[in-house]
Amino acid sequence: MHEIIRLVNRNLTISLNMGFVIWQIIFPLIYIFVAGFAYTALIHQVPFGNKTLDYPAFIATGMIGFNIMNSTLISGIIIWNDRRHGMFEQILVGPFTRAQYIVSNVYTIGIIGLVSAAMITAVGYPLFFKQVEFNILTVPLVIFASITGSILFGSIASIISTRLKSSEGFNVIINTVFLFFAFVSTAFYPAQGAPPILSTAFYFNPLTYLVDVVRAGIFGYFNSLVATEMIILGVGAVILFVIATKLLSKLEM
User: Fold this and answer.
1) What is the DSSP string of 127-168?
2) Tens of pLDDT along 155-202?
3) Residues whose CB is less than 8 angstroms from the CB of residue 91 and which lie 6 or more positions away in sequence, other chains included
4) Nearest to 27 by CA among 215, 182, 210
5) Percent of the chain at pLDDT exceeding 70
């Protein structure tokens, strides 16, 4: 187990630099406090479950899910850089196995996802505290969304990193994919009122389920739809993790 802890410590050390931390805070702040209030003139209130949310509260909780997703880019970047600079080979000829390397990446994205969710919850809390309805399900729902969302999107980033060799291709593909996830979801605006094709596309996007589960926890709303979204999120995380693991296990030294 200590080998995994060493790898996790190494991953966190090379990932959590000051630039990354600042970006993870400043970028959501821009959306929460600038776009949130600027778009209030266009979007006054947003329906969610059995209640109506102010738009700043809606986007603040959406940014929790967005930041969880965005932070998992670290997983793909670590794997790709390890391959590019020969660290993957050095790790495997040392006292580490492929399984330990894979598990350490899961722990890394899980830790970063939880920390990211906590940071944005603290930052956005002043905007949604009046509508918060914490209950016994709040913490389990937010933790579930953070961990499964981190594994799901981290697996996607890992899959992309194993299939591409050029830095240009890696950056273009991973940024395009995650940009699609970000804006074709309920993170920034509700599905209600969107064109039918677009609103349907929202529900082919795992970020929509991640954001909905987070909002369900924070605003105390849980029904069969949220339960279904949790199942889809969990199943998607397992499937993509298995695919990512198989591809990582086949990487050549």
Assistant:
1) HHTTT----TTHHHHHHHHHHHHHHHHHHHHHHHHHH--SHH
2) 898 888 888 777 778 888 888 888 889 889 988 888 887 788 888 889
3) 7, 82, 101
4) 182
5) 95
What is the average pLDDT across 231-253? 86
* Helices 167-183 and 55-71, packing angle to 10 deg: 150
Helices 2-15 and 98-128, axial angle in degrees (round to 10): 50
The amino acid at residue 172 is V
This prediction has a pTM of 0.86
Helix (H) or strand (E) holding 48: strand 45-48
170, amino acid identity: F
Q: If you write DSSP's letter for every residue of 90-135 in order, what string do you get?
A: HHHHTT--HHHHHHHHHHHHHHHHHHHHHHHHHHHHHHHTTT----
User: Are 60 and 36 a contacting pair, CB within 8 Å?
Assistant: yes
Residue 8 CA neighbour count, 13 Å, CB half: 16
Residue 37 CB partners (closer than 8 Å, separation 6+): 56
Higher per-residue confidence, 218 vs 1: 218
